[in-house]
Design brief:
18% strand; 6 helices; 181 residues; globular; 6-stranded parallel β-sheet; 6 strands; alpha/beta
Length: 181
């Protein structure tokens, strides 16, 4: 039986890298997406020690067309994507009154819109087969009300609302594509 294929965004460090390792231990082959090829190569080396096939793809989650191209490469080079995990995120820490609007914009663009772009890309490839799982990192509960975390808290709250609405749509359409957060 061929291995299942997982895509992990933000796979070069932090939660994304840990997620890729956990999926590799569970028997998945992994497409590692991120902006830093050196970090992705390090993550791939760790996975290779456990005989996990990997594909390194430099990608920015804010580029929807780039994510679609990455998904096409994954499906061609590794196989059909069964799980897509959106871990990429950006944050800015500080009091709201002292934050720069551009920093808040970037945090929202990467954390919220990047996850939306990944979700849309995953839906596109998964609907061709009628099945799959999409996971969006949700830290909204943990961040709610914490000082100095307004930018990320807002982006994660928006992502939660997006996922809740999408889940209803998938149920309505009787899709066997699952969304988790």
């Amino acid at each position: 039986m061929p291995s299942q294929i997982a895509v992990v965004t933000g796979a070069g460090s932090g939660i994304g890298r840990a997620t890729a390792q956990a999926l590799g231990r569970a028997g998945f082959d992994i497409a590692l997406l991120g902006r830093c090829p050196e970090r992705l190569a390090d993550a791939a080396q760790e996975l290779a020690r456990h005989s996990v096939r990997t594909l390194i793809l430099e990608a920015d989650v804010t580029d929807a067309l780039g994510l679609s191209a990455a998904a096409a490469r994954v499906e061609t080079e590794l196989g059909p994507i069964s799980v897509w995990v959106n871990c990429a995120g950006a944050t800015v820490v500080g009091q709201v009154a002292a934050l720069d609007a551009q920093d808040i914009h970037r945090a929202t663009e990467v954390t919220y819109l990047g996850s939306v772009n990944g979700t849309l890309t995953a839906l596109d490839v998964m609907r061709r087969r009628g099945e799959g799982t999409i996971v969006n990192l949700d830290l909204a509960e943990a961040l709610r009300g914490l000082p100095l975390q307004a930018a990320e808290s807002g982006a994660r709250g928006a992502l939660r609302g997006f996922c809740e609405s999408l889940r209803s749509e998938l149920l309505h359409d009787a899709d066997t594509i699952h969304i988790a957060w």
